[in-house]
Structures are given as structure tokens and as C-alpha cells.
Amino acid sequence: MTDFRQLPDLALRTLGGGVVWANDEAFAARENLITPGPAAYEPATFGPKGQVYDGWETRRRREPGHDEAIVRLGAPGIVRGVVVDTAWFTGNYPPEVAVDGLAAAGHPSVADLLADPGWEPLLPRSAVKGDTENVFAVTSERRVTHVRLRIFPDGGVARLRVHGEALPDPRLLDALGTVDLAAIENGGRVVGCSNLFYSSPNNLLVPGPPRSMGEGWETARRRDDGNDWVEVSLAGESVIAVAEIDTSYFLHNAPGWATLRGRRGDGEWFDLVPRTALQPDTRHRFALGPPPEQSGEARPVTHVRLDIFPDGGAARLRMHGRLTTSGREALDHRWQAATPRA
Description:
EC number: 3.5.3.4
GO molecular function, one term: allantoicase activity
Largest sheet: 8 strands, antiparallel
Keywords: Hydrolase, Purine metabolism
Oligomer: single chain
Pathway: Nitrogen metabolism; (S)-allantoin degradation; (S)-ureidoglycolate from allantoate (aminidohydrolase route): step 1/1
Helix content: under 10%
Distance between the termini: 29 Å
Shape: globular
Radius of gyration: 22 Å
Structural class: mainly beta
CATH class of the largest domain: Mainly Beta
Strand content: 35-45%
């Protein structure tokens, strides 16, 4: 993908992210930074602290210094870009911002995070505009678990988006055994999609069950003879035991049929689930195994492609299985390279 904003937002609350600390939130709460969706605004809506903003806003600073907030990523990984969105902040946005990253082990306290000397810059101090999605590419190859947003000297930010590639600790996947290898938190990611009209295909790979149709992937209505599809790169080379195509909450716009195919590297696609009728508002589960003429395990895959016919929406795509030996070694190599302190 050429636009890093098509990568998942690793800080998103629905992925497990959290704003664990801010030095000031006098006007608006820090937690708003990672709320899904764009910031909302209703003019002349005043509360006890002034105009209500859907963002994080600090008091007017009367002394030297700056304000900052620390975000725990829902899925630790390599950051490819950040978006500092100052939507609706026009006379009270910070003129400059910076973003730092930290790879912390375990579950550190706020005191541990503040004292940790391992913070490294992801975005150097940079100018931003008000009421704007300020977009910045990041070149670091380090895996991070937390990011720190610094604003100079004070003001308001509506959203902080931290787009990147999740990189899990391989030891956790070992301990868990059979896992969802398409999940963002386990290193899965969308690498291609035919249509993003209504919502992002990244929604297919987030944790937990959907709570509404808006938390899935939905395409525009097709008026031709084609079909829509999404391609996912798994956490590593894997053998998949169970696939799940979930159409929960899609009642009158679920696909009529679907196929699920896999491939290894740049090899040829082959069927995991042949063309099958889908039901609305249903979790479809498929036990996968070797073709009838073969014995042993199913064929290993690195990528899967879901084709839906002709269009519609799905809530989740799960690929439960285990990494192969070579897949585990490749993941370990990536993790070690991106986590020097490991």
C-alpha cells in the first residue's frame, strides 16, 4: 500500500489502545485522542469547562514548557506514519507537535514510562495547522509499544492516529498455540482490497465481536459483472485449521456467496473454501484440511483472499491456525531486528 493511512491504526481504542497519562486535560479528556471515527463538533455547546470538544485540550500555558500524553498501542508494532488531527481546533490548536516511541517490556506503570530512558523520536518537532489532518510519514524500523504526543506549548488535538504494521512477540503465539493469524494484533494485515466505499477492510481483523454493521467492511453496490475482494497477509507462513467468515449485523447487504483462497509467497492461489452460499447475520465456520487425495496437514499459506459475490459486507474474517517452523523463524527474525532490547 502506498498510503500508510490504509494500514491499521495501532492506537485505536477498539484494538485495545489506551491513553494512559497526560500532564493536563483541563478542557477536554485525553481519551478522546484514540476514539474511532472523526471528531464531532456542535457549536455553542458549553459545559462547566467551556466549549465542549471531541478531543484532548489543555489549559493556556503561562510558563515555559509543553504538554504531553502517552498512548499504549493496542497492537505493538512498527509505525509507518502518524496523523495529528486538529479538527475543529481553530484558535486553540498547538503550533507544533512531536511524537516519540518506546518499546517497553511487560505492563509498565505510568511512573515506569515517564522514567524510561528508551524514548526515541518518531516525528521530530514539526509545525501543524489548525482544523486539519496533519499527516507525517515515519521512517523508524523499531517496534514500539507506546507513543508519546508532545504539543508545543499547549492547545487541543482531536485525534492521534498511529498507522503501522503490528509485530507480536513470537513467544506469545507459541504459548497460545492455535491463534487467529489474520488478526491485526497477531501481525495480520490487509494488503489489497477492491472497494473501501463504506468502511475499511481493516475492520475485518480487529479483536472481539462486532457491535453493529458499522464495525465491519462494506462495499458499494455493484452494477457490473465483477465481484469484490480483500487480500490479507498473515502473521507468517501458517497452516490454517479453521476459517471464519462472519456476516453479523449484515442483514440485507450480506454477500450472496464467497470463496476463500490461499497461497504461499508469490505462488498460485488455491481454494481453502470453494464458492459457498453465505447467510446474513451469521458466523460461518469452516474446518480446513488437506485435499481428499492427500494425507497429512493442510497446505501452508502466507496470504489469503476473500472474494465476495457480488458485493456487500462482512464483519470479521478469522484464520485460526499455527505458524510453520519457517514462519515462526521469520517472525522471530523480524521481532529481534525491530526490538534490540529483546
